[in-house]
Design a protein that fits this description.
heterodimer; A: 437 residues; alpha+beta; Immunoglobulin-like; Rossmann fold; Four Helix Bundle (Hemerythrin (Met), subunit A); 3 domains; seven-stranded mixed β-sheet; six-stranded mixed β-sheet; 11 helices; B: mainly beta; Tumour Suppressor Smad4; six-stranded antiparallel β-sheet; 16 strands; 3% helix
């Protein structure tokens, strides 16, 4: 481990044929296994400008139908509050077609300790459902609340049970882009009446996860896990800075493990020929893979060129720390044995990205009634999941299609598919398996 | 601060900050297999020392680089000036690194006169106009006939070396040329794309005007005027026309004839231009010159020909 606690490894076939332009590499970024190994000062929350947490609960009228939903939401919030470490700032927001601060009621944030946690749980116990759904309003209030305090790590948990009916998608998109880069947000949908795409646009922009909680009884455990994960974060605002030489272009930067997430459009220029891609906050023991594609201007046979210099940077108020660096090379050769090999990691992750896309496109086609496309796409997904050993995804697919032949991907759409199963496949379609080294 | 094979300054000493090429002397990557994990947690880059010879100075335009390995991506093509993208020029197909001069062999600059392959069109036309002196422009009248050895084999009457041979008067009245100084004057011609001229040509119109468009990119080219004459035109293998100033391009100016005009060295050390009968005519400083008449040139004169080409002569 380097002294920053991070490592950056590059896996690629660097050999190109004469005139070759496309360079592909898998960049694995890993953090030290224990908190002490990470360079930044101790777990966030130990000092005054550490962490801030907000829990956002949907209190629209539908949360009472059935009443188990609002009851589960109350219990889960209480469970999450108990996980918040002493010293961390926190608050709870309730959302309907408006948003209001539940605890502290005046819109401030409380510093977690035994008494503030107890007061929060009491306030949450009094939550009642009633009203509409305008998620942008909730996010906006969270943003304003966060903005009142300095903090290194800002994170929110958002729970909804329905579609965003009381504001337009443009309004929601505008609010989300205001929040981008300011705080991260994990989204959960309870029941099956919410829109996966809606929550996914929020979670991808705000660098969080999205998932379905079909059964209210599972909510508390999920909230606890999310909060514990947030508590474990230490290094905030980590970016991948990708530098390319003159006359070269970055074709794409995608996170491919643990989930597929295309970062290409979220590039912020940061110097000559360089751009930053956000990766959010990191805790100990994390490992993420990125697939980087660069198109270069070919040099001559025998030349070695740096196609991309990938630096891991931590941006903070006090400056930018370089946590690690990886070099993506290009070497031009006339040895076909070298230049025609496909790097297994690149091949694997290309397949995983295709798998995620095939699932999402297949489900969309199915919803639109286009059975032919749906069968073709989901069949391709079954084949890819099998080839890559992605058993979790294969199991989810088996709930939506009947598999005739797993090798060729021949499937039949099931006549009856539970909404919960379809939504579970949709939200978890982006989960990938690691490339076997 | 390191310097990369192409001459860029680079803060990083492993690979160039500008073009990405590996910097000479740095170790090459350790793994020779096609797929290999190259772990690099920090800035250290270990490996075996580079076996390639250190590249020389950055490639100069017009100089064929002997080693194909010392690739200069972005260096201008010696033929057409397009920035280099790979082994072959994207525009004219010139192969970089091959041992070939930018153009088919040009006559040696210091020869008394080029050995002309007989052109199919008789040149110069056997008219009353005396043929130009074919001695090197920088010498005055040679004192002995022996200085004329190795001169042109053209059938023109052997011209007396005295520079008193009259040259036909140009159409536009011009101030008499000052006698050339004893020191040799070096004349250069700069070929460029002339927007104003192009617009004036477009304004006049004509049957083929639609086919002529102003080039998006034109790298100015310089020619040193030497020998007794410099033909201006576009190369034609079938007709045996190989002009010294070859405007074949790309970008090609379709209004230029194969043998469009000739720059002729006058005995007093200056140069003149003559149009032997081109399809679209030749202008000097905006006025069209008559066919077969030598028009003396002065420093800074501009010759326009074709759809948009300008040749400016400089005496330096």
């Amino acid at each position: 481990m380097t002294e920053s606690g991070f490592t950056v490894d590059v896996d690629q076939n660097e050999y190109l044929p004469e005139g070759g332009r496309e360079v592909s590499a898998i960049v694995t970024v890993a953090s030290a296994a224990d908190a002490a190994g990470l360079a930044s000062p101790g777990p966030a929350g130990a000092e005054p400008d550490g962490s801030a947490e907000i829990i956002i609960i949907d209190c629209s009228g539908s949360m009472e139908y059935p009443r188990t939903k609002i009851a589960a939401a109350r219990a889960a919030t209480a469970a999450a509050v108990d996980v918040v470490r002493d010293g961390v700032l926190f608050s709870v927001i309730a959302g309907t077609n408006l948003a209001f601060s539940v605890f502290p009621a005046d819109g401030s944030m409380a510093r977690a300790d035994a008494s503030s946690r107890a007061a929060a749980k009491q306030a949450v116990a009094g939550l009642r459902a009633g009203g509409g759904t305008a998620i942008g309003q909730w996010l906006d209030l969270a943003r304003q609340t966060f903005a009142r305090y300095p903090a290194r790590l800002r994170h929110a948990i958002l729970l909804t049970d329905g579609k965003n009916q009381h504001e337009s998608s443009e309004q929601l998109a505008a609010t989300v882009s205001q929040c981008e880069g300011f705080f991260s947000c994990d989204c959960r949908g309870i029941g099956t009446d919410w829109e996966v795409k809606e929550l996914r646009t929020i979670s991808t922009a705000l660098l969080g996860s999205v998932d379905i909680v079909p059964d209210p009884s599972g909510l508390a455990a999920d909230f606890e896990a999310m909060m514990a994960n947030a508590m474990g974060k230490q290094v905030a605002d980590v970016v991948l800075q990708v530098w390319t030489p003159q006359h070269a272009t970055v074709k794409f930067v995608k996170q491919v493990a643990p989930t597929v997430d295309d970062l290409t459009d979220r590039r912020t220029p940061s110097g000559p020929q360089a751009g930053d891609y956000p990766t959010g906050a990191w805790g100990p023991g994390e490992s993420r893979d990125y697939h980087v594609g660069v198109e270069v201007t070919p040099a001559g046979l025998g030349d070695v060129m740096l196609a991309a210099r990938v630096k891991l940077l931590a941006k903070s108020a006090s400056g930018t720390d370089v946590l690690g660096q990886g070099l993506v090379r290009a070497t031009w050769t006339d040895d076909e044995a070298l230049s025609t090999k496909i790097n297994p990691g690149v091949a694997h992750y290309t397949g995983q990205a295709e798998l995620a896309a095939a699932i999402q496109e297949g489900l969309e086609a199915r919803k639109a009634g286009d059975e032919e496309t749906a069968t073709a796409k989901l069949g391709r997904a079954v084949a890819l999941a099998h080839q890559s050993g992605n058993e979790d995804t294969a199991k989810l697919l088996a709930k939506v299609v009947d598999v005739v032949d797993v090798e060729t991907g021949r499937v039949r759409l099931k006549k009856q598919v539970e909404d919960a199963d379809e939504m579970a496949l949709d939200t978890r379609s982006t989960k990938t398996v690691r490339a076997r080294k | 601060m390191a310097i990369c094979p192409k001459g860029h300054d680079s803060a990083n000493d492993d690979f160039c900050d500008t073009c990405g090429l590996r910097i000479a002397g740095r170790p090459s990557p350790g793994s020779t297999e096609g797929t290999g994990s190259v772990a690099s947690g920090g800035y250290a880059d270990s490996g075996s020392p580079s076996g390639r010879p250190a590249p020389g100075p950055p490639p100069v335009m017009g100089t064929p680089s002997a080693a194909t390995g010392a690739a200069g991506a972005g260096e201008p093509c010696p033929r057409c000036g397009t920035p280099r993208v790979g082994q072959f020029c994207e525009t004219c197909g010139y192969k970089f690194g091959a041992d070939q001069p930018p153009w088919p062999p040009a006559p040696p600059a210091l020869a008394p006169s080029p050995d002309l392959s007989p052109p199919s069109t008789p040149w110069p036309p056997p008219s009353s106009q005396p043929s130009p002196s074919s001695q090197p422009p920088w010498t005055l009248a040679p004192s002995a006939p022996s200085a004329q050895s190795g001169l042109s084999t053209r059938s023109a009457p052997s011209v007396p070396s005295v520079p008193s041979v009259p040259i036909a008067q140009p159409v536009s009245p011009r101030p008499p040329l000052a006698p050339s100084s004893p020191a040799p004057a070096v004349w250069t011609a700069v070929v460029s794309a002339d927007r104003q001229y192009y617009e004036s040509v477009q304004a006049v119109g004509g049957p083929d005007m639609a086919a002529v468009s102003f080039p998006g990119y034109y790298a100015e080219r310089q020619f040193r005027l030497a020998g007794g004459q410099m033909r201006i035109g576009r190369r034609s293998v079938s007709r045996g026309i190989e002009p010294e100033i070859d405007l074949t391009g790309p970008p090609a100016d379709p209004g230029i004839s194969r043998l469009h005009a000739v720059l002729i060295a006058t005995p007093d050390g200056n140069w003149a231009v003559l149009d032997p009968g081109s399809a679209n005519g030749t202008l000097v400083n905006g006025s069209e010159i008559p066919t077969d008449v030598q028009v003396p040139l002065q420093d800074g004169d501009r010759i326009n020909l074709g759809g948009w080409t300008a040749i400016t002569v400089h005496r330096g």
